[in-house]
Amino acid sequence: MTEITSMVITHSKATVEEIEEAWDGDIEKMLIDLHSNDLVCECVVLKTCNRVEIYIVSPKGNSVLFQFAKRMGLSSNIIDFFDHEESIMHLLRLACGLESMIIGEDQILGQIKDLYQVAKNLGTSGKMLDTTFSKAIQVGKRVRTETEINRGALSIASASVDLAEETVGDLKDKMVLVIGTGEMGTLVTRALSHREIELMYIANRTYEAAKELADEMGGHAVRFDQIDANLMKADVVISATGAPHYVLKYEQVKKAMDLREKELLLIDIANPRDIDPSISDIPHVTLYNIDNLRVINEKNLEMRMAEAKKVQAIIDEEFGLLIKQYKRQKADHLVSELYAQSYKLRVQEKDKAITKLSAYHTIGETESKIIEDLTHSIINKILAEPTKVLRYAAEIGDDELLESVAKLFSISRSSLNTKVKDEMVKCSPSAE
Fold first, then answer.
1. Which residues are annotated binding-site positions for NADP(+)?
2. What is the domain range of residue 399?
């Protein structure tokens, strides 16, 4: 059966290093690679700083994803493989913030929307994943309107600022250097601006981007080649670039620490990491990465549990509706074939009737339209109740009735499969 299957690697089982190693190339490359498999009808890839998730529609999803993981050299210890309903439930929970490291955080919903759009633009998503992701986004919005799951919720970026405060105390009189002006860097500076910090410096390879963000957030722009000089003065450095290599290296930080006396806190929230892990060996330097933010999550978890229960109730309701929708689609293929047969017969008999009547007198446009509307209405009224019955049978899993109707009207399984494939992005004949 062609359904959704997913492969999920997240912070719940994997470390930062393992998530980094799990990622092979950019999103578009991975989507194209997956979609080139004859057994993959649709695919969407989600990649954030603490997760890599692959969703595919395939008649042999588990086999495809297992082989994909094997080819990437991934350990099964850090992977969860989910079937159709498990994948849907996981995605709904993810969109609502229940699967995030920081329970209830808002950032994940925007990330899902953006990454789903990448698949849409490439044409690797189709009817089945469109239905699921649209529902997930809709439910994510609903829970943030109807519950307080995101009240005081923290993103990874703002959690890094809280971690800095816990480590060095009040940041108001501290000098904080933020490296990176992308999405995460912007969130960090926004969180810092709410602390009314006077000494906030923003560095980026493109100085104009740093200047623009600094002006907006009330900070000071720093040219990238001035980072070393600022390491001499900074109390806290939060790095969040998209660089594929280390932005802060051991010798660079060692040199700065040899020329200063105070402690230095480094927080790396980039993936791949920005800061060489060996820097933690330098005296008077404290280095934290995404794994350390789990502590922040634990402190906030208890206060969000009551809201999480309300969110789960909404998810369960929407999950039930979505599963019914998918089950109805089984009947829809059968109903579509019934209508196709009936309309074909209607046209044939209508044409015969008009030909016979024309032998006796002229049939004008008005008469032809009346006959057309009459036969069309008869077919729709005859099939209206069977359509309801078939969709209900699909909802409750009465496959026996669906099979009986298919046999009764000589609708072969191959014709139904053809319809399914036509509605997918693509599926090879061998997938059936």
1. 180-185
2. 329-423
